[in-house]
Please model this.
Amino acid sequence: MKIMKFGGTSVGKPERMKEVAQLITKDDTRKIVVLSALSGTTNALVSISNYLSQGDRSAAKLTIEQLHNHYHQFIETLFSKAESKAKAVEVIAEHFEFLHIILRISFSEALNKDILAQGELMSTKLFSVYLEEAGINHELLPALEFMTIDANEEPQLGAIKVKLAQLLKKHADKNILVTQGYICRNARGEVDNLKRGGSDYTASLIAAASNATVCEIWTDIDGMHNNDPRIVAKTMAIEQLSFDEAAELAYFGAKILHPTCIWPAQQENVPVRLLNTMQPDAMGTVITKEAGSVGVKAVAAKDGIIAIKIKSSRMLLAYGFLRKVFEVFEKYKTSIDMITTSEVAVSVTIDSDQFLSQIVKELEPFGSVDIEKEQTIVSIVGNEIAQTDQVLQKLFESLKAVPVTMVSYGGSAHNISLLVPGVYKIQTLQLLNSGLFGL
Ligand code: ASP
Ligand code: MG
Model:
């Protein structure tokens, strides 16, 4: 069994969707094909939901109509037979009818999730009609029948395994199975989702649940790069990464892969391959248990970071101080990315200001609290990076012109993280590209 996941841009144009049909029929391996919504759809659905929650029905209606038009044009080009076009018209009519009905009912969180699910439901159904037109034997597996999360919004891998196995057995005669990324059912049985960008997560969960030989993530770039190609002129695809390295890179800003998506594949040891729909024969990046080589592999940056410094002379020789500090963050379910300590101060970074004022208020009794917003974490990732010859020397040598405000080194064997003011991000990434990679 192999898993092939195609993102929004890979199915976002009729000609792209046709290429996907070709890619999934290249070999005879049994496969589960996971699709995102057509590019732009989930953003539009989020806007519709937001308008409705603000009571702006006319703006919601307008966005629904624009989206409806987009889908009409899409199927106009995708299909050549009148019969399949009619089927596709029916598919989108059903979903847009639902979107028009919601204009008249009161908004709720559950309704919001229903709205967000429309994108993947439509992309997979349209793709299925296209496969039918092209004479490609397949079965559509509804993700809502097997993809579930528990009350803490964590996927239930065990339950997913059992339900998926039943479905795969039921359709044992089918070699190509198509399903929706992103959407799932929650503990209350309602439609829910795995958060924005969650289709990668779906693919990895299915790969783990079906004991797949490989989980292929098809996007529009030829793998994970050593630096951000949108910022730095010369970057290169990384051939091989370990699960740990990939997790650090995904978490610290490499947009190509969703950070949560690593653990299921890692747990069941299923290799993940990042491939490019536009260049299907390019090597891409393979993520496996082994790292392949030692040393610096990539840098990535995460923006919008808030640094919090708590300074107190009472921390001097005191025990239990850090626990009290951490408990405040735990109380507000705010995770800490970086941490550094000195004898009288502790600095941490967080990436959400949702509970910032409450957190600061509860930290103030411990000492003086300083906040710096708009910071960027620049992460340098590589297997056994800490033991790599002269890595720190090269790092600081290249960043002489940058005011680094925090350094985290030694926490893991494959990561060194720096905090820099957000305005220095571009310069930092460029300097590291030449200093560490000679590019
Ligand atoms: N369609 C969803 C989103 O845009 C999920 C995904 O594409 O991964 O966030
Ligand atoms: Mg994505």
The first helix runs from residue 8 to 11.
